[in-house]
Amino acid sequence: MTTVINDVKTYNLYINGEWVSPISESYFDVISPATGQVVSKAALGDEQDTKRAIDAAAAAFPEWSAKTGRERAEILTRLYQLMIENSEQLAKSISVEMGKPIQQARGEVMNAAEYVLWNLEEGKRVSGEVIPGAVKNRRLQVIRQPIGPVAAITPWNFPLGMVTRKLAPALAAGCTVVLKPAEQTPGSAILFFELAEKAGIPKGVINLVTGTPQQIGDALLSDKRIRKITFTGSTNVGKQLLRKAADQVKRVSMELGGHAPFIVFEDADLEHTIEQLARCKFQNCGQTCISANRIYVQESIKDQFLSLLKEKAESLRVGNGLEKGVDVGPLVSKAGLNKVEEQVNNAVEQGAKLVTGGEKYEVEGHEEGYFYKPTILADVQDTMMIATNETFGPVAPIFTFKTEEEVVAKANDTDYGLAAYCFTKDLSRSVRVSEALEYGMVGINDTVLSQVEGPFGGIKESGMGREGGTDGLADFLEKKFISTII
Ligand code: NAP
């Protein structure tokens, strides 16, 4: 259970239905990126704590997986309702720990709850197949069964959304889970577990370990009882986990980094495009895997586009996400701020033009916060760091292009393949471009790609597997083929 001393909460591990202190008896600080102050302390778990959590998940699996989809759905419905009832508390925790404006945090909570609702419904409808065979007295069928105990590792940028995208389908499918949330943002995951306990999720079915990532990751990946790892985070860490998962041929779902192209053709509705771009680029302070990172504008509309985007960027209010009317919060950490500064400085040194922003933002009373002004760079070239490295910040780099063929080639010239956007009123072009873009998701005049009804995920080095839609649950089920002679 969470304890609070001088407003600083202390979070323990959740193993086998109990809140327990870590074997190390140590805790690490969780810092508010807006104030630089310690807001909570989380348990420094290690391999041994993780082993305890795996023991619990493995022991709980037979009973949880044997329940019917409806029985599991009843418990998950209570969890969904509790999330809605406690949405403000969840949103506040997200905003305090990772900095996003409170209204965006509220949106994240609703989206996270929708993943629970969607998957509990899907869980009732898991079915198999009866296949006509070649021989009269033989019957062929396929059944689908839960994969087994699952390891889930999540990032800080959507600290609750990423948890329910994994746990909701896993639980609805009949899997048990060991979760390791990101060190910057354990609070909303802890709250979610408290709600899950209240909802009646049986002991051992979900377990939470915070602490040293490598030790926890190694313990999860080297244990044969863990049958699948589902990870959201950087491509770099994803590759390390994939290599380790290969040793035991564990199932994997990888939601990794992105470097989304955002293509604006001269016939696009510019007002709509700027609204969508500002949302996609500056929401979450640009710390989104599907954020528009390479903005390609057709040469003929460059000046008009830049002037509209500048006006929009300068209208955004930067500040502590908990304050009313704030559009852009701080970056999550000093390292995040440094990376943004490095990319902007590198671009400007190599000839990019700073249209607006380009520096830290001082918020009165929050001198320790990691704030950065919404920034626009024009005349960006392919050789600049920002053109190839994932940008995780409020920086909009503008490239120009002449033809459709040229821009599609440029958009595809990357190792990433998560999300891409195309803005045009030409229907035929929108079809051609969406089919030619080598990405897992494409938005046509739209930037909202994280919708529970659709499969979210990437190709190339952006990962494998899908979350949401019918695929989300399917990724936690194994098919079994049964052939019977009667
Ligand atoms: P990260 O550094 O890869 O961390 C993600 C998670 O992995 C955290 O819980 C982290 O723990 C853990 N981790 C780090 N090293 C590990 C290791 N050696 N073994 C096991 N676990 C390890 O990524 P991040 O900075 O938190 O998140 C940003 C990245 O996530 C971006 O690249 C973004 O594009 C990507 N992302 C992708 C999607 C998608 O759906 N494709 C969605 C959101 C974010 P600690 O926090 O304790 O270090």
TrEMBL record:
Name of the molecule in the record: Aldehyde dehydrogenase
Alphabetized Pfam families for the sequence: Aldedh
Gene3D superfamilies assigned to the protein according to its UniProt record, in alphabetical order: Aldehyde Dehydrogenase, Chain A, domain 1, Aldehyde Dehydrogenase, Chain A, domain 2
Aldehyde dehydrogenase domain residues: 19-481
GO molecular function, one term: succinate-semialdehyde dehydrogenase (NAD+) activity
Similarity annotation: Belongs to the aldehyde dehydrogenase family.
Cross-referenced SUPFAM superfamilies: ALDH-like
Active-site residues annotated for this sequence: E255, C289
Superkingdom classification of source: Bacteria
GO BP, sorted A to Z: aldehyde metabolic process; gamma-aminobutyric acid catabolic process
CDD domains cross-referenced by the UniProt entry: ALDH_F5_SSADH_GabD
Keyword rRNA processing among UniProt keywords: no
Keyword tags: Oxidoreductase
